Amino acid sequence: MARAYPAVRRVFLADGDALAAPTNHLLHLLGTLSGAFPSLERVSSYALPANLLKKSVEELRQLRENGLTLLYYGIETGAAELLKRITKGATPEAMVTGLGKAKAAGFMISATVILGLGGQPYWQEHIDGTAELVNQVALDYLSTLQLMIEPSLRAEFTRKFREPFHEQDDRALLLEQMRLIERLNPPAPLVFRSNHASNALALAGTLPQDQLELLSRLELALAGGLHLRPEWLRGY
Question: How much is the pTM?
């Protein structure tokens, strides 16, 4: 099959937990990919918090040196209590440790956070904890998604939060985005995006240099000067 795609430059190791595989297995897989695709430039994978904690820096470095160069990492939130409620399986401290190991091994990291995850009562804790976490790790990319709950899952959110879950509206989510960007002070240049299909407002820039421009666009949107993406055009 590889001969049918000689120009392949990028490969993603599907699906959600590829990095949980034994390091020797992953090294064998990376070697096979390198031999099969002569134009291969990048192999990427999701990385769960537990994966990075279980592997040593040396194991991670071996994977990096053999072609696995980019990790996609779901932070979701940096608020400890919210991480418990969504059963993320990690604390903020553990995520900082794992991400630090990945950076020490030379990986590029693309992380995501979810606006609205704290609902109305906990949005400030959500945003402040997230900014604090991000500011401790030299991420390469950071993207925000907006929380979208399928009707069939609303009862599950109420169960996890042990109280009715009150979602944020678009205006409140823009305020969350503003608070997050205001508080981000990354230790290295950070490419920031909110261009996922779930987002009401698309933003793009590099922090910290574009911080004021991003905040200006948010202020304009809050004042009604920018059109938001209609709900029927948004996706999970």
Answer: 0.94
Sheet of 68-76: strands edge to edge?
A: 10-13, 42-46, 68-76, 108-115, 141-146, 190-193, 204-207
Q: Whole domain around residue 203: which residue ranges?
A: 46-59+67-233
**What is the β-pairing status of strands 108-115 and 204-207?**
unpaired
pLDDT digits 0-9 by tens, 131-161: 999 999 999 999 999 998 888 888 888 888 8
Taking CA atoms, 188 is separated from 72, 97, 184, 194, 211, in Å, by 18, 17, 11, 19, 14
Which tokens in the block code for residue 124?
């400030």
For residue 63, give the nearest of 91, 22, 94 by alpha carbon: 22
Residue 225: how many CB atoms within 10 A of its CB?
Answer: 9
Task: Classify the C-alpha dihedral 50-53-59-63 as positive or negative.
Answer: positive
Q: What digits encode the pLDDT tens for the residues 183-213?
A: 999 999 999 999 888 999 999 999 999 999 9
| Domain-located, residue 75 | yes
In a domain, 97, yes or no: yes
State the average pLDDT over residues 78-86: 95
CATH assignment of the domain containing 123:
3.30.750.200
Instruction: Establish if 194 belongs to a structural domain.
Output: yes
* Residues comprising the chain, all counted: 236
CA distance 77 to 88: 9
Q: Is residue 20 part of a domain?
A: no
For the chain, how many structural domains are there in total? Answer: 1
